[in-house]
């Protein structure tokens, strides 16, 4: 069966040496399911009335005077001024994104896209999301590369967990990598 001098097979032919490759085919295309749309934050246009929040009225007044009291209160948007370490000042009333070159996902709508000048590129392209809830300002880290730290007045610094909203009072300093801004 084998040659005594060279060790090659005497019965093997070129055709018998061809075997199918047992490895899986790496060029197989895997069909990917489309990404389910997810809304992280949606602003409410000024033309459409905001959702109504019912307010319970407790009073010892006679029933006739209760009819004159409003049954619901429309929430209002507060104005916040963001003062950046770069000297930039921006007044905001709704929701938005902050970064070197902020970009909303196709299924997201924001009122503001705030660009931060950062030559060192420590700030991510879309670093931070902000918005309002019941007149209070909140921020959320958008899985940034260098993270976000908040310094509330009179409290210790706190690193933000990506994707979680943090309500901030006026006077808070927000550090986005090597840059920062304060809320007033």
UniProtKB/TrEMBL annotation:
Residues 98-176 form the FHA domain. Coiled coil: none annotated. Keywords: Phosphoprotein. Residues 6-28 are annotated as: Disordered. Residues 15-24 have a biased composition (Basic and acidic residues). InterPro entries: FHA_dom, SMAD_FHA_dom_sf. The keyword Phosphoprotein applies. The keyword Phosphoprotein applies. This is FHA domain-containing protein. It comes from Cryobacterium flavum.
């Amino acid at each position: 069966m084998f040659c005594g001098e060279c060790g090659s097979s005497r019965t093997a032919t070129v055709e018998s040496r061809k075997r199918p490759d047992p490895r899986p085919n790496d060029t197989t295309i895997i069909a990917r399911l489309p990404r389910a749309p997810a809304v992280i934050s949606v602003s409410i246009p000024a033309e459409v009335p905001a959702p109504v929040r019912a307010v319970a009225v407790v009073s010892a007044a006679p029933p006739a005077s209760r009819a004159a009291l409003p049954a619901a209160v429309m929430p209002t948007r507060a104005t916040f001024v963001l003062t950046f370490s770069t000297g930039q000042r921006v007044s905001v009333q709704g929701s938005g994104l902050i970064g070197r070159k902020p970009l909303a996902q196709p299924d997201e709508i924001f009122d503001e896209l705030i660009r931060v000048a950062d030559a060192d590129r420590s700030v991510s392209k879309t670093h931070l999301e902000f918005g309002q809830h019941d007149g209070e300002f909140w921020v959320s880290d958008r899985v940034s590369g260098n993270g976000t730290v908040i310094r509330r007045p009179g409290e210790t610094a706190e690193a933000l967990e990506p994707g979680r909203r943090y309500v901030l009072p006026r006077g808070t300093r927000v550090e986005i990598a090597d840059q920062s801004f304060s809320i007033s």
